[in-house]
């Protein structure tokens, strides 16, 4: 019997940027890294939850083809656990991810743009999902209080990193 020693880990982080009400995702893409940092209101590592790990395995073995396509925000600060399957108190509907793209080896980016009329309220949590409702939560993060209103737009930028260990 051949013993496999291949191992990997999946980590990630999320950043939230606040912009003026008339800002667009196209404007965000044009910003330099320094300009983005000036708009940054939150950054932190997230937890890939059990349902997310199971969904990634299902993608690897081709028993499911639902990729990471939605982002949600909510107003509950209950601690994240591996058993989480949804946001605790969603604000509005999940939005389709605006832009998904690969970075360097093993890095995936998932940017979601929230217009001035989208998901207004005090954000305390965010998550990545594979469906607009129900489906699987991939990641969840508690964030410091961020007020999203009609006077601003926001970009939620998730990064997932798959690396060999």
Overall mean pLDDT: 95
Low-confidence stretches: none
Domain unit count: 1
**What proportion of the residues is helical, as a percent range?**
10-25%
H/E element string?
EHHEEHEEEEEEE
**How many β-strands, per DSSP?**
10
Span of the ends, CA to CA: 22 Å
Q: Order of strands in the sheet with the most strands?
A: 2-1-10-7-6
Strand content: 35-45%
Structural class: mainly beta
Number of helices: 3
For the biggest sheet, the summary is: 5 strands, antiparallel
The best one-word shape is globular
Compute the gyration radius: what is it? 16 Å
Folded structure, characterized:
With 165 residues, the chain is mainly beta. It has one domain (45-164). The chain is 15% helix and 45% strand. It has helices spanning 25-30, 33-39, 50-60, and strands at 8-20, 40-45, 47-48, 70-74, 95-96, 99-102, 107-114, 121-129, 137-148, 152-164. The strands form two sheets. A five-stranded antiparallel β-sheet has the order 2-1-10-7-6. Strands 3-9-8-4-5 form a five-stranded antiparallel β-sheet. A hairpin with a 7-residue loop joins strand 8 and strand 9. The radius of gyration is 16 Å and the shape is globular. The mean pLDDT is 95.
Brief overview:
The chain is mainly beta and 165 residues long. Helices cover 15% and strands 45% of the residues.
Defining key terms:
five-stranded antiparallel beta sheet; 3 helices; mainly beta; globular; single chain; 165 residues
């Amino acid at each position: 019997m051949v013993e496999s020693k291949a191992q990997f880990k999946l980590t990630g982080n999320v950043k939230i940027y606040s912009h003026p009400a008339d800002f667009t995702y196209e404007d965000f893409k044009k910003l330099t890294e320094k300009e983005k940092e000036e708009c940054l209101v939150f950054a932190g590592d997230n937890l890939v939850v059990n349902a997310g790990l199971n969904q990634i395995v299902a993608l690897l073995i081709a028993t499911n083809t639902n990729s990471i396509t939605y982002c949600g925000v909510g107003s509950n600060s209950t601690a994240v656990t591996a058993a989480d399957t949804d946001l605790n108190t969603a604000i509005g509907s999940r939005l389709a991810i605006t832009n998904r793209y690969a970075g360097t080896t093993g890095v995936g980016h998932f940017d979601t743009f929230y217009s001035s009329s989208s998901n207004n309220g005090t954000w305390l949590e965010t998550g990545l999902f594979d469906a607009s409702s129900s489906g699987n939560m991939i990641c969840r993060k508690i964030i410091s209080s961020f007020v999203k209103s009609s006077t601003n737009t926001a970009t939620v930028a998730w990064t997932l990193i798959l690396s060999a260990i």
